[in-house]
Amino acid sequence: AEGAGLDTRRDCLQGTRMEILSQITDWVNSTGDDIPRVLWLSGPAGKGKSAIAHTIAKWFEDVGGLGSCYCFDRQREADRRHEKIFSTIACDLADRDPEIRRAVADAVQAANSLKKTTDIVQQWQKLLIKPLEKSSRSTGEPIVIVINALDESGGVETRRDLRILAGKHPNPAVPKITDLSNKLRFIVTSRPFDDINHEFCNVQHIRHISMDDIPAAVAERDIRAYVSKELEGLDFQHKEFAVLAKKADGLFEWARLVCGFIKERHSGISPIDCYEAVVSRDPAERTMPLESMYLLIITDIIHGDTSTNPCLSSCYLLTRLLSLTFCSLFPFEPPPALQNSMSSLLSGTTNPDSPIRPLYPSFHDFLTDRRFSGEFFIDLQKAQHDLGFASLRVMEDGLRFNICDLNSSYLPNNDDPALRERIYKCISPHLSYSSRLWTSHTRVTVFNEELAKEVKSLFDHERLFFWLELPALINALSRTVPALPPISQWLKMSTLLLGAR
Questions:
Q1: What is the pLDDT of residue 28?
Q2: CA distance 311 to 427
Q3: What confidence tens digit (pLDDT) does each residue in 404-427 have?
Q4: Are 419 and 472 in contact (CB under 8 A)?
Q5: In a 10 Å sphere around its CB, with 0-12 CB exposed, 13-18 middle and 19+ buried, how is residue 401 labelled?
Q6: Residue 453: how many other CB atoms lie within 10 Å
């Protein structure tokens, strides 16, 4: 799974989180048959679970003990990482162990379908359990496998198959995690969602550590160290650092947002003024510190730029959450200064080829909950509808027969040395986006007569074949074809509803 591995940029500041990091490393290095095979680190958004996970992964990678680090990301749900978890972990283990590599290769040779299977039970049994049984390394030093942000793997139904980790799969023939060598250590992090709590709590082979159990004084000490490092060189003293650390209330994410806000250059406003704006917030907002900070930052950005119409704030935020190359479909194009000022909230703001995504799931939650975001609320259903509709219209205008003017249909794409140049010249970024992702936007949209007519128009026109050609040219066909059955079902249901009117 692309981009799902270790990210050393997200580790803990050196010298912080030492107590909980020691707890985890001591557990990894413990010996005995009764040692739990899984450690579940839970806690609310913003507490620093991911930083701890990446730090542990980096430590064990440095000593050769990391088997795999697999990270879920809500903003990458379209990648369907939950369908690739154990095949990716198996590949990571194979890269580090010749015996496992041979065992995985033998399994794939015996059943070629394992290469692309999305059945994680098969992945678990044939690509992970059996190869590990054949590895002599399973009797040596501990092997750490980190699974970060399990709560971001999708919805409740998506996570249901991952109960394999809790040894609760309904099929008793599926091997349990306790069947593996006791040298394997799985570290799983997540928010304490009800379904995860139900599966993971009170399970003998799972050790549970809650971020809420970290003493307030310890968390405050570590956040003070982080804040003092981030604001180094500005006109602040220990007193200001202590105030911020106390107000953070254990939320590293809040501290990160505050430091970014204070360091950001504001016209006519000094860093100490920004500090005062933060610490003087309404005490009633202490019950939702992250949401309050998001609101302060966005309000400052939107209202602090004279070229921005506040009435377009929702449109602005929506466009920034999309790829910059897709902004041509919207009437409002934010100036570069605004793009840069959103870097504390969004990733990809400085790279025109990179999708714009919330840095953390809590910001996504803020934007999509009207109670917190107010005028900045984003209606995801409306956004999905608008993007699906716009994508279909872009394809209607841009698709044509032999769009890249290929000389012969008998020549494989890989044998055309000028194909990359032809793609760049003939397929615009927004047409590429539309062709790849209109299905993703449409199939999650509730019934809409207008959108149904656009989809039906595509299926009833030769444009459908022009569309199928484009993903083949840009090597996206394997992700495009599987999207057709859900779209057909969506259209069928829409047609039935139309007929019932």
A1: 94
A2: 33
A3: 888 877 778 777 888 888 888 999
A4: no
A5: exposed
A6: 13
Q: What distance separates the 2 farthest-apart alpha carbons in the chain?
A: 73
Instruction: List all residues 6 or more positions away from 353 whose beta carbon is below 8 Å from its beta carbon.
Output: 324, 325
Q: How close are the terminal C-alpha atoms of the chain, in Å?
A: 44
Size of the chain in residues: 501
Q: To the nearest 10°, the Cα dihedral for 198, 201, 204, 209?
A: 150
Q: d(Cα 246, Cα 214) in Å, to the nearest integer? A: 14
3 state SS of 379: coil
| Coil, strand or helix at 338 | helix
- Side chain identity at 178, as an amino acid letter? T
- Which pTM was predicted? 0.77
For 355, half-sphere exposure in the C-beta direction (CA atoms, 13 angstrom radius) is 10
Mean pLDDT, residues 10-30 taken together: 94
Rg (CA), the chain: 25
- Angstrom distance (rounded) from CA 387 to CA 381: 10
Distance of CA 444 to the CA centre of its chain: 18
